[in-house]
Amino acid sequence: MELDDLLAAGDANLAATMRLSARTAPGAAMEDGDGLLLYSTSARWPGPYHNGAIRLDRSLAPAEVLRRAGAFFAGRAPGYCVWVAAHADEDLEQAALAGGYAAISAEGAPRLALDRPLGPPEPPPGVTLDEVADEEGRRRYLEVTVEAYADSFLPRDAAEAQLASLEAVRGPHVRAVVAHLEGRPVAAAMVVTSERVAGIQLVGTVPGARRRGLGELCTRWAVAAGFAAGAEAIVLEASEAGDPVYRRMGFTEVSRYRWCFGPPGPGAGDARHDRR
I need a surface site. Which of 15, 51, 209, 243 has the fewest CB within 10 A? Predict the structure, then answer.
C-alpha cells in the first residue's frame, strides 16, 4: 500500500474505532458528517479517545472545525481534544493554538504500521490466549484494562463506558483477546478492521504481570486477527512504554498524532477569526 493511501486508511480506521465506542457506550453522543467526527463517551474524562474531534475532510476550514467542536462539547464534558495528524493537520493545529487551545504533547504519539504478518503467538507454559466471546470474557477484558491503565490516570468509569457491552469488543469488524496466567486475566488487546487496514487498540498488561511479553503476545494475536480479516496493513498509536516493543516486532513509524485541548480559556483568542 502506498504511504498516502496507508495514512488515509489509518485515519479512517481511527474514526471507525471512535464510532464503535460512541455506538456502544451508554449515554454517548456523536455527530458524524460533512468531514468531521465529534464524539463523547464520558461526561468527566476529557481524553482524546473519549471526547474528541477528528477532521476527515482536510478541505474543511480549521475555523469551522473549532466552531463545530465548541458547539458540540458545550456543557457536555469538562474538556475535549482536537486530533492533529502530523501528515495533514498543520493548519488545524496552528489555528487551534492561535485560538487558545493547549498543546498536550509536542511530540505526540507515533503512528506505527506493519505491512506483513508476524509469526503466530506462542503462549508460554501457564498462559492461555482466549478470544472474547461472551459477557464473562468482556468483563475480564474490562478488569485488565482498568488495572493496566490505572497508572495512565484513566478513570474506571471511562473504561467501563468504553467497554460497556459485548458489541464493543466482538462483532463483524472487532475482535479482542485476553491472556490468562494460571487462569487469571493479566493482559489484553483488541483490533478494529475497516476498509484496507486494521487498528490495534487498548493493549494492556496488569502491573504484576509485566515484563513477561504478555502484551506483545496479545498484540501478535491481534495482528493475526487483523490480517485474517483481510487487512493489508496493521496500524496503532504507540504509548511511550509500548513504542520500543512494537518497533522490535517490526512496526515502523509513518506519522504522528498530536492533540490540542479545549475549550479555550477566558480571554483566549477567537479561533473563528482565522480564515486560513
Answer: 243
Mean pLDDT in consecutive groups of 10 residues from the start of the chain, 276 residues: 97 98 97 97 95 97 98 95 98 98 93 95 96 98 97 92 97 98 98 96 97 97 98 96 95 98 72 32
pLDDT at res. 276: 26
Please report where in the chains the cell 460497556 appears, as a residue: 164
Question: What does the alpha-carbon distance between residue 142 and residue 121 come to, in Å, rounded to a whole number?
Answer: 22
- Residue 39: strand, helix, or coil: strand
Q: How far is it, in rounded angstroms, from Cα 79 to Cα 37?
A: 16
Cβ contacts of 227 within 8 Å, gap of 6 or more: 117, 198, 234
Give the containing element (helix H, strand E) for 67: helix 62-73
User: Do 225 and 129 meet the contact criterion of CB atoms below 8 Å apart?
Assistant: no
Beta-carbon contacts of residue 107 (< 8 Å; ≥ 6 apart): 256, 258
Tell which phi-psi region holds residue 90, choosing left (phi > 0), alpha (psi between -120 and 50) or beta.
Answer: alpha
* Region for residue 267 given its phi and psi (left: phi exceeds 0; alpha: psi -120 to 50; beta: otherwise): left
**Other beta carbons less than 10 A from residue 124's beta carbon:** 10
Verify cis geometry, omega within 30 degrees of 0, for the bond prior to 263: yes
